[in-house]
Every structure is written in structure tokens, then in C-alpha cells.
Write a structure and sequence with these properties.
alpha/beta, six-stranded parallel sheet, 11 helices, binds alpha-L-arabinofuranose
Length: 327
């Protein structure tokens, strides 16, 4: 907005904001520009997060510039540098891996641009490098999946194969830990094979095929735990092609609650999922606007809910409620 086309009301408001301690001179929420370094589009959940972020920004009249990193940290670092050079009001970062952010986030900090982490954490000793992180408790997600499995197999011996998320991603490390801790209390349940499927359907299928081959065509496997639903959907395909019944011969438990897993529930081919909301941007934008407008410093962690869904939870209804969200 130039001085020439500002109304008297805007001029007075700008003057007022400029004199309120703790507010920046760019403190009109309506004029905020946010750069979002998004990981890519590896999963249905990720596609929904991108789509929901756009609509949440639009609702608040925020300009959102999205840079797709195509799964590469180096592209995310370039995007952050470009956002800093453009002088955006804030940066949202969904970090593909947990380490290696200190230098570039230090550059954003020096430029006084607040950074908000979305859906994944980073490993840093310097928490002042970001304003807040909007994430689920991903250790808890893994624990919910593990407890569901323990509750379902009872005392029966159960050999589990695990499809991990992207190596080095906080959510992959944490979902593994939560699950391992939960089943450690049940010596009859053991993870016999565990490998990354990089959060994609194609890789989930490919790795499951190798698990099945190595485990007597799948006959040794009692359950498959996938760190996201997309890998589980790929696994379901592989299990069917091997002549077994996913959801019955091999129990399927995963994370995200994307519409396709509810379709699999309806077909009797999957057994449980832990929901991760794709709306990380809404709470992040609210925190950012309160910070810019009133100087309100948000808590370091804004935690989103993790809810267990099973085929008993009216999968058709949940599917219908989610299918328009960009998954
Ligand atoms: O960080 C969230 C995870 O990233 C989702 O569970 C997965 O689907 C995605 O790609």
C-alpha cells in the first residue's frame, strides 16, 4: 500500500500500530506475506497440507508463497534464502529432515523474519531460531499405533514388518520410537523387518514386496506398521498381489487418516490409522498474526491432536468429510 492510496483510517491505524510496543511497522495481518518452504508432494497428506494452507491463508487475507522443495533439503535452504532476500514477513518451514538448519535459520533471524515450523521438528540447541512449531506429538502417534496392535493381538505371537518414513525426518524417528516403546511391554510382538519407504506409495509397495519374499511369501508376517497411510496403501497392493488378504492375514496399522485408508477400511483391507490434521497453517497463521499485531509470543510448541480411527468409526462418513480437502 502506498501513502497516496491510504485512507485516513489506514494512516491513523498505521500510526497507532507503529507506537504500540512490541509491534512491527508491518503489523497489518491483511498485508502479511508468508513464504512457505514445503517438502514436496510425497503423500496424500502432504498434498492436503499444501491445499489447506492456501485456503487458511486466503481466509486471513495473507499472501502465501509456496516453494516446493521436491524432497531436498538443499532446495529448502535455497527457498529460505530467497524468502529472506524478498523480505517476507514470516517463513513457514516443513523440514524434510531434522538436522542442518542452524545456519540458514540464523540468516532469517538476523533479518528479523520469524520462522514457524510446520508438521516436523528440527534438532537444534538454539530454540530461538524459530518462533513456534505446529506439530503433532509423533512419538505418541507411534505409541497409539503400537497400543492398538497390542490390544488386538493379545497374547498371540506377532511378527511385525515396519515401513519407516523418510530417513532423518523427525516424524520417522519419533513414530518408530513410540511404536517400539509401546510393543516393548508385549514380548509376544516383535518387529522382524524395518526399512524406509520414504513416505510414498510406490516405495511402500516395493519394500513390502521384498518383505513378503523374505518372509515365506508373507506367511510369517502378522502385522504391518507403516509410518504413513500412503505406504500402507502401497503395501496393501503388494500383499494382495502376493495372494494374501491385507487386513486379515496381515493386519495393517498406519498414520495420517487420508481418505484412501478409509476406502481400505470399507474394503476390509486395513485396520487402524492415527489421524494427523493437514491444517497446520491455520494455527500457525493465528500465532503469527497475534505476534505481529499484539506482540504475543506463542508457546514454543502448538500441539495438534492425534486420534485413532478404525473401521468401527463410520469410514464412509469420514471419507466424505475429507475428500474435498486436497488429499
Ligand atoms: O510430517 C508429516 C508426514 O509427512 C506425514 O505423515 C506423511 O504422510 C508426510 O509425508
Amino acid at each position: 500500500m502506498t501513502l497516496k492510496n491510504m485512507t485516513l483510517k489506514n494512516v491513523l491505524l498505521a500510526a497507532l500500530v507503529a507506537f504500540v510496543p512490541g509491534t512491527a511497522s508491518t503489523a497489518f495481518a491483511a498485508s502479511l506475506t508468508v513464504g512457505f518452504s514445503q517438502i514436496g508432494s510425497e503423500s496424500g497428506w502432504r498434498a492436503a497440507e499444501t491445499s489447506v494452507s492456501k485456503s487458511e491463508a486466503q481466509k486471513r487475507d495473507v499472501t502465501l508463497k509456496i516453494a516446493d522443495a521436491q524432497q531436498k533439503q538443499e532446495n529448502q535452504i535455497k527457498a529460505i534464502r530467497s524468502f529472506v532476500a524478498q523480505g517476507v514477513d514470516a517463513i513457514f518451514l516443513a523440514p524434510v529432515v531434522a538436522t542442518g538448519w542452524d545456519a540458514v535459520l540464523g540468516e532469517a533471524k538476523d533479518a528479523k523474519i520469524p520462522v514457524i515450523l510446520l508438521d516436523r521438528d528440527i534438532d537444534t540447541a538454539n530454540k530461538s531460531l524459530y518462533l513456534t512449531a505446529v506439530t503433532s506429538d509423533s512419538v505418541h502417534e507411534g505409541a497409539v499405533a503400537g497400543e492398538w496392535l497390542a490390544g488386538n493381538v493379545g497374547d498371540k505371537p506377532c511378527s511385525v514388518v515396519e515401513l519407516q518414513g523418510t530417513v532423518g525426518a523427525s516424524v520417522a524417528t519419533n513414530r518408530k520410537k513410540g511404536f517400539d516403546d509401546a510393543i516393548a511391554k508385549h514380548p509376544n510382538i516383535k518387529v522382524i523387518r524395518s526399512q524406509t519407504g520414504d513416505f510414498t506409495r510406490a516405495k511402500g509397495k516395493e519394500v513390502t514386496e521384498s518383505f513378503l519374499k523374505a518372509e515365506n511369501g508373507g506367511k510369517n508376517i502378522c502385522a504391518l506398521y507403516a509410518h504413513n497411510d500412503d505406504m500402507a496403501v502401497g503395501a496393501i497392493q503388494a500383499i494382495k498381489e502376493a495372494g494374501l488378504k491385507p487386513g486379515k492375514d496381515i493386519l495393517i496399522v498406519s498414520i495420517d487418516a487420508v481418505p484412501d485408508i478409509f476406502k481400505a477400511f470399507m474394503a476390509g483391507e486395513a485396520n487402524a490409522t492415527v489421524e494427523l490434521t493437514p491444517n497446520m497453517a491455520g494455527p500457525a497463521l493465528d500465532a503469527l498474526i497475534a505476534f505481529k499485531d499484539k506482540g504475543t509470543v506463542p508457546p514454543k510448541w502448538i500441539q495438534t491432536e492425534s486420534k485413532l480411527f478404525t473401521p468401527a468409526d463410520d469410514p464412509q462418513k469420514v471419507y466424505d468429510s475429507k475428500k474435498g480437502l486436497g488429499y
